[in-house]
Amino acid sequence: MARLVMKFGGTSVADLDRIRNVAAHVKREVDAGHQVAVVVSAMAGKTNELVALCRGASALHDAREYDAVVASGEQVTSGLLAITLQAMGIDARSWQGWQLPIVTDGAHGAARIQSIDGSRVIEQMEAGRVAVIAGFQGIGPDGRVSTLGRGGSDTSAVAVAAAVKADRCDIYTDVDGVYTTDPRVVPKARRLDKVSFEEMLEMASLGSKVLQVRSVELAMVHKVRTFVRSSFEDPNNPKTMPNGDPFGTLICDEDEIVEQEVVTGIAYSKDEAQISIRRVPDQPGVAAAVFGPLAEANVNVDMIVQNISADGAETDITFTLPATDYERATAVLNDKKVEIGYKTFEGTTGMCKVSVIGVGMRSHAGVAAQAFKALSDKGINIRAITTSEIKISVLIDEAYTELAVRTLHSAYGLDKA
Amino acid sequence: MARLVMKFGGTSVADLDRIRNVAAHVKREVDAGHQVAVVVSAMAGKTNELVALCRGASALHDAREYDAVVASGEQVTSGLLAITLQAMGIDARSWQGWQLPIVTDGAHGAARIQSIDGSRVIEQMEAGRVAVIAGFQGIGPDGRVSTLGRGGSDTSAVAVAAAVKADRCDIYTDVDGVYTTDPRVVPKARRLDKVSFEEMLEMASLGSKVLQVRSVELAMVHKVRTFVRSSFEDPNNPKTMPNGDPFGTLICDEDEIVEQEVVTGIAYSKDEAQISIRRVPDQPGVAAAVFGPLAEANVNVDMIVQNISADGAETDITFTLPATDYERATAVLNDKKVEIGYKTFEGTTGMCKVSVIGVGMRSHAGVAAQAFKALSDKGINIRAITTSEIKISVLIDEAYTELAVRTLHSAYGLDKA
């Protein structure tokens, strides 16, 4: 007997047939004797429809009202799934965020979960009843409905799993696991049996869309074993691993992964932009003078490269940002030219960031050099580089994205046999 | 300065344009210096869509889950209207049933309001803020969302008006008031300036669709002056009465109506059925033996006629019921034949109940006789009669409905000049 949290996204609950399919997945686990809580998203398309209504009502809308409107999508799905489970003879009830409660901070529209009272869900589970919880939502300190921002249902599921001390949090989605890279770009991409929290966090941050970044952070902090699997399997006879385990990818503590590869995956994110500020005074406080105003303007600066200056007087600063923030960033720089004291700046959109990720890098030298050589062999120019303990990111022209990803995937031996 | 509750139904909030129109109505009252709370229904069609989803999930669904799903419609409208009002520069916020709270009993799907804490709405109103309240919903003793049954938003509005001691509850709808009868049947039907609570209650019970019966009951008990008016008027320049009052029908205490007519209106309801039970023992307890089992089977018995028997041994009982309950009723009667001890029964659907309503009947003799004569003159056969202090109802063949309504409308001098 295990305690499971099962999460189903929008495409998995898109209509009543899909909801019945979800209920069959839940029934399988209940019949196997597990204690089960379920977290659901809104039916596919519903959230977009509700967001469009809010925008239509006013471009600048009160985030608290937006939350009240948009949270209704998950409310509907949780009720419908509870009804469907009951019709299959499974004791179930729905819970909205405010009922549990899932307490968030007051940042309506992008709230963060502060606490979940797991006692009622545990009580329900122990009584053999399935708790069907509306994802993506909670209640703020003002007593009003809050939402966690897009993709927040993953975060709800992991938070619930932490609160009820679940043995595993199963994220059912439209793919059957986490891959070494995007299989649409590299057909030879391999599904990973296991991936560490740290690696998954980098992958999610760096472009993998399988899980929301915050849900991985939360899973890492609370050590919630999170399992990515497909909701499109036959619920009554899902594919299994050779050893009988469910088929998918387990995101878990590094210690649980016996044979750790040096590199686990290649991630990429397009629509990046790059700005270089030329001949900035090379003195303390200049970085703050540049990035303070950008932060205030909500420009999401990512990679920052500053070289030691040749003459000790002036230097260049290069940074990357999402292409959507580019116009705003250049406006800020023009505005602050005197304060910052730079001579010129230049920039461009149409960039891509490609990242090589693996906890094995910590103990292996030469991993970065291998990437640089592989890209150079294909004539791909590297515009900027950043590294962390477990990843190397390079900025390249967007046109080379697929070539670079395929090249690195092969270079690190990730291709499927 | 007055304190107003404004209620808008589904067709009045059918899309964003209609919601903007509603907001303009609200703005007009706020600009006139009134304190305003608004009660809204779900966007037209939305409740049906949600009900269909619940039914699709399971024909027999948990009423508590049904409520969680269906109540989301009003939640969306209240948020959207708050956003729209804010965009017009009007301070507003939405309230869901559980937030206020609107406390109901536990009869999920058809709950009754038990209490409303008006203090928060009054606080908001006095601070110049419009409270936009989701109609049709509340919170049950189990801490779960409850709904009041179809048309419940009228009831929500009147209950809120009672709780905040509003000067008037304006029900905005797709007609411009209460008419002496259905204008589709009698083009000469007249709009009433005022109608008493008692008369409106009979009209609503007897087929007028303008207001939900329970909302009128509640208005009568709490003496909430309720005003039926059109949401399709130009919000910035609505039609007024010659004396400058708003255009519509005021439902109020009898004392407020100076010139009371003898008959105020003619109501009708089609799809009635009639059942006659022949040769029942004429002894105490026989009515209970008949109507007890029917009540248990949720058969909604309306008119009951039992004559004094000629021989003192056996009698006949005739009653009417909605045609939709007919099959169920005959099944019960067949089942209980021995217990009731009747010889035969016969019944028919395709009946119509036509009612003449007016508080003036109390002090005027011969009102019923006038109806019987008028119908007889047209050759319309009366199958059953019931009367109360302020109404006469006759059961006739459905085919004669329009003729009977027109005939009675003229007979009591209700035709428009």
UniProtKB/TrEMBL annotation, chains A, B:
> What are the entry keywords?
Amino-acid biosynthesis, ATP-binding, Kinase, Lysine biosynthesis, Nucleotide-binding, Transferase
Q: Which PROSITE patterns match?
A: ACT, ASPARTOKINASE
Q: Where is the ACT domain?
A: 275-350, 356-417
| SUPFAM superfamilies, alphabetized | ACT-like, Carbamate kinase-like
Provide the GO biological process annotations. Answer: homoserine biosynthetic process; lysine biosynthetic process via diaminopimelate; threonine biosynthetic process
Q: Name one GO molecular function term.
A: ATP binding
Q: Which residues bind ATP?
A: 7-10, 173-174, 179, 184, 209-210
| Enzyme class (EC, first level) | transferase
Has UniProt tagged this entry with the keyword Amino-acid biosynthesis?
yes
Q: Binding residues for substrate, per the UniProt record?
A: 47, 74
Protein name in UniProt: Aspartokinase
